[in-house]
Amino acid sequence: MKANYESVLFIKLNLLKSNFNFYKQKIGKKVKIIAVVKAYAYGHGDIKICKALEKLKVDYFWVADFEEAVSLRKNNITTPIIVANPGYKNYNIFIKYNLEPLVFNLKSLKSFNRNKKINCHLKFNTGMNRFGFESDQKEEVVKFLNQNKNINVKTICSHLADVNNKSFMNNQRKEFDLVCNYFLKNFNK
Question: Are 78 and 54 in contact (CB under 8 A)?
Fold first, then answer.
């Protein structure tokens, strides 16, 4: 049976390319671009969007769950993929499909410290309060990472809660800077 929808969404990949190139020029060559393509690229079609962005040399894709990442890999997407909710039991899947977990607590950090080196991204909570290491855990995280060399930290991130509240946002940025500076001084890659 054919559905007769009145609402139609058209994705113009040439405009995606134009927007991507505009922002790439604005941020400069040293800044990496991560395309958030979770939830089927917000309903726009993750495979088609990812293939278009891959041609433009996007640096990373970001998905919510490992199933989304596996689907991208099975559709020949080769760009690095960050998985925001990696789970605790999916280490072998991450290794098999060359996926990069977002690690946000000690349990997840330990679950990815196994026999093969894996690229990970660390998330610190600076005020969004959804998930992430608390900033006062930075010493414990660095100590663990310095003692366990199978986790290769690619990035450290946070999530701004309210960019319209400049005071709150600036406090988040200061908190994040403290975490990053601690890593720069104490983390032995």
Answer: yes
Cα 126 from Cα 168, distance rounded (Å): 10
Angle at 35 between CA 41 and CA 10, to 5 degrees: 40
pLDDT in single tens digits along all 189 residues of the chain:
566 767 767 788 999 999 999 999 999 889 999 999 998 888 888 999 999 999 999 999 999 999 999 999 999 999 999 999 999 999 999 999 999 999 999 999 999 999 999 999 999 999 998 899 999 999 999 999 999 999 999 999 999 999 899 999 999 999 999 999 999 999 997
Residue 99's identity, in one-letter code, is L
SS3 62: strand
102: how many CB neighbours lie within 10 A of its CB? 21
Helices (H) and strands (E) in the chain, counts: 8, 7
Q: In terms of Cα–Cα distance, which of 153, 165, 51 is closest to 101?
A: 153
